[in-house]
Amino acid sequence: MRETPREAVPKMTQSTTHISRRSILRTGAGAALAAPLVAGPLTSCSPKSSAGGPANKTLTVTSYGGSYNDQLTKTILKPFHKKTGIRPTLLANTSLAALKTQVRSGDVQWDLVELTAPEYVQAVKEGLLEKFDYGIIRAKGLPSYAKAEYGIKYLSFLFVMAWDQKHVTDGRAPKNWDQFFDQGRYSTKRSVYAQLSDSSVLEAARLAEGVPFDKIYPLDVEAALRYLGQHPGREKLIYHRANQEPVQQLTSGEVSLATSFNNRINAARKDGAKVNFSSAGGVLAGDYFVVPKGARNKEAAFRLMDFMSNDADAGADFDQTTNLTLANTPALAKLPAHVADTLPTSPKLADSILVRDDKWWADNLKATEQRFKLWQAGS
User: Fold this and answer.
1) pLDDT tens per residue, range 241-263
2) N or C: which end of the chain has fewer CB within 10 A?
3) Structural domain boundaries of the chain?
């Protein structure tokens, strides 16, 4: 890799808006990102609709694959198909780059696309998205922070520390990020998520140094990298780039500690894996669903978003199945307290988790990714 002088790295800018974790958590279940999964398609790709013609009965949705796609299919897509007759195809190859290519070429194959929050901001800036039709999507079911002009922050999740219970018992498990990275406490290697658009490993490093939640942003990237270089050290870090990888690494014994997302570890536990996680110091983030400009079945996509945001039974099933929080306020009344209290937006977690600053990441993602890659390479 060719080295780039630090002077060439764009200066990090401070977010112009401060997001209070309490303002989000008090809103109720909130939502944004869900983390990734892979379910098979429910049907073949939808045909192109004629302008002004009747709404198509198919649409193509893209997400991240893995167990999440299976859960999304079971709790949302199948009930939506049963209720409306519209049959979604769920793919596992979502990406901003592919969305951009489709829009710029005029050959848009996707109708509803999952993006991380920083990617959403970038897509809006580049004019890649259709405005959401809130004549079709009833906004009454949406928490105030979830509704946006070009998308819905439909899902929220926690970036957490996880461990292999066969090698790290719950009694010896890390209680904070300082302990997670402490090489004297755990001599094992750690697996950390390398995709910074979705990873909060740099925030975890700052939290490990004792930086309070309200001082994390603007993020001091160099300080975070210095910390990681010393605790546990570059040679003790391995990287994953897909959301199923840390579960595989933990269960195979490749590592004993890993960063992951709360829903991934919960799904693995339900399948019998000896893994666990802590919400303490977790980073709350979320994903958007968007409609690419020129989408062939945008009305069907808006109808799916209306169902996802307002159907209480489907929303409650989703929350309980995934342990994520859907942007669906009516679903909250359907949840037992022991479930609601474990969701990422539970007020009971308000004092122990950090809310990710999407604006800061949108402004600084490219520069931070460049710097992180150089640091990984030893620069």
Assistant:
1) 988 899 999 999 999 999 999 98
2) N
3) 28-156+286-355, 158-282+358-376
What letter would DSSP give residue 301?
H
CATH topology classification for 28-156+286-355: D-Maltodextrin-Binding Protein; domain 2 (3.40.190)
| pTM, two decimal places | 0.77
Torsion, CA 236, CA 264, CA 283, CA 139, rounded to 10: 160
How far CA 378 is from CA of 12, 214, 241, in Å, comes to 21, 31, 19
On the question of a cis peptide bond just before residue 88, with omega within 30 degrees of 0, the verdict is no
Residue 233, token pair as written in the block: 């050290």
158-282+358-376 CATH? 3.40.190.10
Strand partners, 278: 161
Whole-Å CA distances, 34 to 39, 133, 328, 379: 14, 22, 14, 33
Q: Tell the residue number behind the tokens 């931070």, with chain if given.
A: 368
pLDDT tens digits, 295-313 = 999 999 999 999 999 999 9
